[in-house]
Task: structure prediction
Amino acid sequence: MLLCLDIGNTQIHGGVFDGDVLRCQFRKSTQPLGTTDELGIFFTAVLRENGLDPKTVTAVAICSVVPAMLYGLRGAAEKYFHCEPFVLQAGVKTGLKVKFRNPLEVGADRIAGAIAAAHRRPGRDLIVVDCGTATTFDAVTATGDYLGGIILPGVGVSAEALASHTAKLPRVEIAQPPAALGRTTTESIQSGLFFGHVGAIQYLLVKLKLEVFPNSQPCIIGTGGFARMFEHESLFDEIVPELVLTGLRQAEALNRESPPGKK
Result:
């Protein structure tokens, strides 16, 4: 089985694949970073809690936007799963043609999401919207060209910024309020966070469609920890929470079958 780890700025999203089947998923806070043993013990414990024997994990795949975590993750993979992990990074096979001006700048999680979207909807123009610490938009053509995208602060970051940089505004639960008009400070903040983000996503999708896909109707795929919160806003054609994990699995398989530098 394959243990896939999506290391984000806020959370680690993990999953175990048995072939194409996702057997379990889990999340933990990225901070504190954790040592090799702390990470290894957590991963083995969470697998057991999900009814899986850690000894059946024979491969580990990682995509990370937190470079400082890679040392501990490599050590955990080697010590607890007895394998050298696959890391999705520049130079590995992805099946995409990355048209970004500097491909090294593209987050590995964004590439993983694009890989999975292209496999999920082959022959379609695509926009992937990942609602996490940041909300990112990625445009992928029907022929597999990764064109680039948009980054804006996520809902959680926006909420934290308000609480941290104002004297009287409180931290609030991130949730859809009962109405756009807030009748308390908490409702007012929730309204701005929720409906403001909905409006931003709607407008940016319109801009991308006009600029990038003026002659087609791209499929919009939502993913990320906050995507479900917008489920009833008709922003996405579908929401796939495990999209990045699936793309990471597909990248690992592609490189295992045909390692970089080999045909």
About this structure: Residues 62 and 234 are 32 Å apart (CA to CA). The chain has two domains: 2-87, 97-248. The mean pLDDT is 94. The two ends are 25 Å apart (CA to CA).
